[in-house]
């Protein structure tokens, strides 16, 4: 039997007695069962069972994965009872009393002689042997371990058979301990025979309930680590599909129930007829089967119901995107026509613009407005027409095209498809790496990112601020090598947002009104190797946290600077000229600065001032209104917020 040794005491015993000895077989060790969890080993010796087994360690194997342990292969010798515990550490040693020996009876004749005139022990031994032979006969004899066990039944001493078989069949730990405590051979046979009979009845019931298969030899193989276990049974050809043994019959029912058009149904039935005549070893069998599985999974008759409410569609479009009146009007016109003509074919819309202006998000909004499923297909760098139309079935690893695969993914036959980067389709045999790189490098815009402005001795720079939240205990983490002033600005921003959370409808991860309740916030300033300090990032922190808590995106063409107070005022900062020039170099279109820095705009060159939209803010309400498309929720109602003016 193999035993895993993981506890500190047992590993110390293996190191000092087994591995340091001249021979493994020169040291007899005792194995006593207990129920202690190895993961919670303590200094105190746990309660031990009264009876154990003495054995010789035939093999010792050490390993460090997943944690240090030894695996011992032990040959049992006899039972023993602990008479006196001599010491507990570093490993337990005890004085024991031998209860039996390994070869007390070696043949049925000796067992009959020891049983006396009545021969009860001999009868029990014979019944047990017959039950063991019956149990092994119900298993697959072609498996080597089963054939070996059958030979052991004739070669092993009869007194060892109960111990050997009980260790292999499925029984509770309590039942195994009862067999271990049975010192007399007669008692051991009496306790083991019912367990063997119960296992045989279970196998008979399993064979009756299993549905026969054409190539099933009606043999059941029980698998267990280290031996045969007639408990958990596995069929030799079990694949986890129990609904029917004939896979082609199941596939035929699926084909007829898929509601395909008549031409497609004729093709599938023809392929299915060919499939039935093919042996599974043919390569074409797998290709035909995959083709039929794809045809069955396509949504031939599954579709979503369109939402044709023009007023609701207008609200959804306005909530998702600011302005874009021409695009919204085109979508609403399509809905109006669909109300009059339900069989209208879906139009094709072409969106043109640089990366990041919202082409992909507009397509998702259109799908949400119509109540349809949305699927995006990235075509950047694709150069093979088979990638669009599908590969020939004769090729190894052939797959359907992007469109068909998209229909299979969404599960309906009327989704909104977005063919992204259609102008970047390659033309060479190897493809266009630059076009494919565009698809990989374009990041998905998420809430919690804003652009700030910073001053350095070498001029101004733009500075990205990122925020993320996760479940926690309301902690605020700041990273990016920040100075004390910037850390204080972050705490000011958090306090102001918490005090105005209800006004701006800001929530935490579970929808509560306190943004920090059950939520941890992480605020990061990239370029962590550069030291950053100063109060001018206060408005940027407020904006990025407001975006995170509200789930709304900050405008990508906005940069800002300004110091904040606990009452929500925006105070002036220095370096306005350098900061504005940095924003202009980065392609920013709108710059938010404090109202009291308006006089500094005269220092900016006229050609730069013309190309930028300046917003001067007195308080954080005006900052948020300018940073988000369509303003920020709550600030449009003048009754909800008091007017705050600076007295500084």
Automatic annotation (TrEMBL):
The keyword Nucleotide-binding applies. InterPro entries: AAA+_ATPase (IPR003593), ATPase_dyneun-rel_AAA (IPR011704), Lon_proteolytic (IPR008269), Lon_Prtase (IPR027065), Lon_prtase_N (IPR003111), Lon_prtase_N_sf (IPR046336), P-loop_NTPase (IPR027417), Peptidase_S16_AS (IPR008268). The active site is at residues 536, 579. The keyword ATP-binding applies. It comes from the Eukaryota. Keywords: ATP-binding, Hydrolase, Nucleotide-binding, Peroxisome, Protease, Serine protease. GO terms for biological process: protein catabolic process; proteolysis. Residues 444-630 form the Lon proteolytic domain. Pfam families: AAA_5 (PF07728), Lon_C (PF05362), LON_substr_bdg (PF02190). Coiled coil: none annotated. Residues 1-200 form the Lon N-terminal domain. GO terms for molecular function: ATP binding; ATP hydrolysis activity; ATP-dependent peptidase activity; serine-type endopeptidase activity. Belongs to the peptidase S16 family. PANTHER family: ATP DEPENDENT LON PROTEASE FAMILY MEMBER. This is Lon protease homolog 2, peroxisomal. It comes from Coregonus suidteri. The lineage of its organism: Eukaryota, Metazoa, Chordata, Craniata, Vertebrata.
């Amino acid at each position: 039997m193999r035993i895993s040794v993981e506890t500190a005491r047992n590993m110390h015993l293996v190191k000092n007695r087994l591995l340091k000895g001249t021979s493994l077989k020169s040291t007899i060790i005792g194995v006593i069962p207990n129920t202690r969890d190895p993961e919670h080993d303590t200094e105190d010796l746990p309660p031990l069972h009264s009876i154990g087994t003495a054995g010789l360690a035939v093999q010792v194997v050490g390993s460090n994965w997943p944690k240090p342990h030894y695996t011992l292969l032990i040959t049992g010798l006899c039972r023993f009872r602990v008479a006196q515990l001599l010491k507990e550490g570093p490993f337990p040693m005890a004085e024991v009393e031998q209860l039996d020996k390994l070869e007390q009876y070696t043949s049925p004749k000796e067992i009959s002689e020891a049983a006396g005139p009545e021969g009860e022990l001999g009868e029990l031994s014979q019944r047990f042997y017959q039950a063991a032979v019956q149990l092994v006969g119900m298993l697959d004899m072609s498996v080597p371990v089963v054939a070996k066990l059958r030979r052991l039944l004739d070669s092993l001493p009869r007194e060892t058979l109960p111990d050997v078989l009980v260790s292999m069949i499925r029984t509770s730990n309590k039942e195994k301990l009862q067999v271990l405590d049975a010192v007399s051979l007669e008692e051991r046979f009496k306790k083991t025979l019912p367990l063997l009979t119960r296992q045989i009845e279970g196998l008979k019931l399993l064979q009756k309930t299993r549905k026969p298969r054409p190539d099933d030899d009606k043999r059941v193989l029980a698998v267990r680590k280290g031996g045969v276990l007639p408990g958990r049974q596995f069929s030799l050809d079990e694949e986890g599909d129990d609904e029917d043994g004939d896979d082609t019959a199941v596939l035929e029912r699926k084909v007829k129930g898929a509601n395909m058009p008549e031409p497609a149904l004729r093709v599938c039935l023809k392929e299915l007829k060919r499939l039935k005549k093919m042996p599974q070893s043919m390569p074409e069998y797998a290709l035909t089967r995959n083709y039929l599985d794809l045809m069955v999974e396509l949504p031939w008759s599954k579709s979503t119901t369109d939402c044709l409410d023009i007023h609701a569609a207008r609200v959804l479009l306005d909530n998702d995107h600011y302005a874009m009146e021409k695009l919204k009007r085109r979508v609403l016109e399509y809905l109006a026509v669909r109300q009059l003509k339900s069989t209208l074919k879906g139009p094709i819309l072409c969106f043109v613009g640089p990366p990041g202006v919202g082409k992909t998000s507009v397509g998702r909004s259109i799908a949400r407005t119509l109540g349809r499923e949305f699927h995006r297909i990235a075509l950047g760098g694709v150069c093979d027409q088979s990638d669009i139309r599908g590969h020939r079935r004769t090729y190894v690893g052939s797959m359907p095209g992007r469109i068909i695969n998209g229909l299979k993914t969404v599960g309906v036959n009327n989704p909104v498809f977005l063919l992204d980067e259609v102008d970047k389709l390659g033309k060479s045999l190897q493809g266009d790496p630059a076009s494919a790189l565009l698809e990989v490098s374009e990041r998905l815009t998420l809430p919690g990112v804003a652009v700030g402005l910073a001053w350095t001795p070498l001029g101004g720079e733009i500075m990205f601020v990122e925020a993320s939240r996760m479940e926690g205990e309301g902690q605020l983490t700041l990273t990016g090598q920040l100075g004390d002033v910037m850390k204080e600005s972050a705490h000011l921003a958090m306090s102001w947002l918490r005090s105005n959370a209800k006004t701006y409808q800001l929530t935490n991860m579970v929808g509560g009104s306190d943004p920090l309740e059950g939520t941890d916030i992480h605020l990061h300033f990239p370029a962590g190797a550069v030291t950053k300090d100063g109060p001018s990032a206060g408005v940027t922190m407020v904006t990025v946290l407001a975006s995170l808590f509200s789930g709304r995106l900050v405008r990508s063409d906005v940069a800002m600077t300004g110091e904040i107070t606990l009452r929500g005022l925006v105070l002036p900062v220095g370096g306005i000229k350098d900061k504005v020039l940095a924003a202009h170099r980065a392609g920013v279109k709108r710059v938010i600065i404090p109202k009291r820095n308006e006089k500094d705009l005269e220092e900016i060159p006229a050609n730069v001032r013309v190309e930028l939209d300046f917003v001067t803010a007195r308080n954080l309400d005006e900052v948020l209104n300018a940073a988000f498309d369509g303003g920020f929720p709550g600030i449009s109602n003048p009754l909800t917020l008091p007017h705050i003016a600076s007295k500084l």
